[in-house]
Amino acid sequence: MEKILDIVDSIAHEKGLEPKKVKEALRTAFVQTAKRVIGKNLAFEANINDKKKSIDIVQTITVVADDDERLQDKEIAPAYISITDAREYDDQVELDDQLQIEHNLEDYGRTGASWLHKEIEFHIQRLVEDELFNKYKNKIGTLASGQVTRVDSKNNTYIEVDEIRAVLPMKSRIKGESFKVGDHIKAVVRRVGMDKENGIQIELSRTSPKFLEALLELEVPEISDGSVIIEKAARIPGQRAKVALISTHPQVDAVGSTVGVKGVRINAVSDELCGENIDCIEYTNVPELFISRIMSPAMVSNVEIVQNENGEDEKIVITLPSDQKSKAIGKSGINIRLASMLTGLDIELVENDQVTTQNNIIEEAKDGVDALEALFS
Q1: Distances in whole angstroms, Cα of residue 16 to Cα of each of 25, 129, 290, 305
Q2: CATH of the domain at 362
Q3: What three-state secondary structure class fits 153?
Q4: 326 backbone dihedrals φ, ψ, rounded to 5°
Q5: pLDDT tens digits, 320-337
Q6: pLDDT on residue 367
Q7: Concatenated DSSP letters for 259-298?
């Protein structure tokens, strides 16, 4: 077991780990091995010996009286030593003192070596998985790309992303698209989990609004450098999306820069999304104005945000001409659904033709009265 620390740097370099963490993993492996081959109920410590470049196993044992009942219990007796036996090691020892007894795993032959090998392999692998888990957990909502390695019977697509295999479930694919082994695809990291049996689990998505945002950031330099910010995004995958944009620079047009010359930028994103139509909207802090913009292409007359008795926004009532209602709803209700997604509120449409007609009648009556007054004056 001597000079085992010489392998720390090579393991750290090969696996991309910090040497300090590798040392801790080795210490844990030594302690677990000692518990397996010496006694599972015993207290062990693994001390790093930098001079010998080794890891020393030390058992902590408690000194008790010669007639202590714990010495008779086979399960816990190894963790205690009678004061008479303890004074053979140290004649100054007292009751309840802690003795340190060194063990050499080499004394346990092939059994000890075999268990140590398994424990080192297990704890290094766990360390690698923890590092990957933390790495990809911080990447949730960001773009990932890789090559398809397998498509199972349920049409779940498995993709090799860097050093791990991720899965794109069928439910997270855009309707109508299919992949085969060898295809190179992009998706957004949706979820990262850890499973004891299968290790790290990474789920990708091509239907999330975050995927649209990530593609826009990749395609539009103004978004990647922060000149344009995506305030909100909503989409019905493969059909239509709405993106609210705001410029942080007075000379940068948020919508124009995102769309690009002749729509080249937005079309590139749309192509990746199977022809999904993308509406770019300039964001504003004025709720009524913002709502009127996201209802495009419909032209609205009035926007009212209705609050409940607790003062919380409950719904949006939009007044509009009857010939604009179908545009506001959109094909299969897509437009109003996207608007509701962006605002987070239900939207109620009210036609204002009846109000307009009543106003016209009143104006005509008023004009008639004025004419009569002029005639008899």
Answers
A1: 14, 11, 48, 54
A2: 3.30.300.20
A3: coil
A4: -65, -35
A5: 999 999 999 999 999 999
A6: 52
A7: H-GGGHHHHHHHHHTTT-EEEEEE--S-HHHHHHHHTTTS
SS3 30: helix
217 touches 257 (CB < 8 A): no
Domain residues for the domain of 357 are: 297-377
Do 220 and 229 meet the contact criterion of CB atoms below 8 Å apart? no
| CB-count exposure of residue 84 (10 Å: 0-12, 13-18, 19+) | exposed
The verdict on 104 and 64 lying in the same domain is yes
Q: Angle, nearest 10°, between helix axes 6-15 and 19-37? A: 120
Residue 93 near residue 83 (C-beta atoms within 8 A): yes
In this structure, the answer to whether residues 144 and 132 fall within a common structural domain is: no
Measure the CA–CA gap between 248 and 254, rounded to whole angstroms. Answer: 9
Looking at this protein, which amino acid is placed at residue 16?
A: G
For residues 117 and 11, state if they share a domain.
Answer: yes
Given a cut of 50, the residues of the chain with pLDDT beneath it are 355-359, 361-362, 364-366, 368-369, 371-377
In a domain, 105, yes or no: yes
**131 and 60: one domain?**
yes
- Tracing tokens 């016209």 back to the chain, one arrives at 360
Can you say how many angstroms the Cα of residue 222 is from the centroid of all Cα atoms in its chain?
Answer: 24
Of 129, 120, 130, 128, which is closest to residue 36 (Cα–Cα)? 120
Whether 132 and 39 share a structural domain:
yes
Q: Is 304 part of any domain?
A: yes
Q: What are the phi and psi torsion angles at 133 (to 5°)?
A: -60, -50
Q: How far apart are CA 159 and CA 141, in angstroms?
A: 17
Q: Tell me which residue has tokens 């504003």.
A: 284
